[in-house]
DNA sequence: TCTGGGGTCCTAGGACCC
DNA sequence: TCTGGGGTCCTAGGACCC
């Protein structure tokens, strides 16, 4: 089984694990990271729950207050992104020391690829190195492409070894009978549309002709769906660092905003903070967008290209955000405000 | 217990130009 | 006066992921 393999490395309960790492007294306890770290905080959700907290039914995306009811004895902690970034960098450095190609895929994930003789052995070595050098555990999925590796990593999470493999030979026996929603990139909306076409399982989708999918999907989307259902996927490992296309800041307020001046102040503050980060990252802004979510959860975005070209000036960004803000009615209580900057790529 | 924050990519319609 | 297509840019929203 030698040849080109892809491994998907997925760190376990990343934020919670990093917290435990620097506070060993938390080991073995349910740890819940999210929001301000206050179990009574409204309008905040769980970012990561430790394995112990998950046993109480707590999971990512759950409102913090519900988590607090399910697991009142948990340790609640606020997010500390700089700490997670540092831990992530150490993990990636550890992986990069192996003779493989590495594609960093977010803070807690990476693809490893190359001409690999024994992928299971490599996976075990990678896991051991990450544990020895950083103190974190991970699951590793092995496949012939990113799709297979990514899905295999899910099985790896449930396996005591923390390693699982999917290939062209095992894909359909393993995945064929499973619901299409288990595919990577197929969410609830797509599941519904496929159901309307009588397609429920991965095998159904793999066998579907493009003409079957045509009523609900563009040719491009249909083609891609069939490819992933058959276990196909991208094999390219991009080692160059990712260049962000955009950067944004948004905040959900504890209490809704009703005063226009208050809304303008908040948008200005978000835009300036965002501008400072963008400049610190050495990037230039070409477009500014604003997001408004009302108390009823109705969400709209408005945006505008900067007429005078790319900028690094926080004043220009803030002014642009306020101009975009005038495109909104703002006649309802505002729950969330966000500002997004699209960045000049290739500069 | 109402539903976070930070991203990416795709699509579709209208404007505008040739 | 009416009528083509094609191409690109811009904007808004949808869908998905972690």
Automatic annotation (TrEMBL):
Annotated catalysed reactions: DNA(n) + a 2'-deoxyribonucleoside 5'-triphosphate = DNA(n+1) + diphosphate
InterPro entries, sorted: DNA/RNA_pol_sf, DNA_pol_Y-fam_lit_finger_sf, DNA_pol_Y-fam_little_finger, DNA_polymerase-Y, DNApol_IV, PolY_HhH_motif, Rev_trsase/Diguanyl_cyclase, UmuC
EC number: 2.7.7.7
Keyword Transferase: yes
Assigned keywords, A-Z: Nucleotidyltransferase, Transferase
Function as written in the Swiss-Prot or TrEMBL entry: Poorly processive, error-prone DNA polymerase involved in untargeted mutagenesis. Copies undamaged DNA at stalled replication forks, which arise in vivo from mismatched or misaligned primer ends. These misaligned primers can be extended by PolIV. Exhibits no 3'-5' exonuclease (proofreading) activity. May be involved in translesional synthesis, in conjunction with the beta clamp from PolIII.
Protein name from the UniProt record: DNA polymerase IV
Lineage: Bacteria, Bacillati, Actinomycetota, Actinomycetes, Micromonosporales
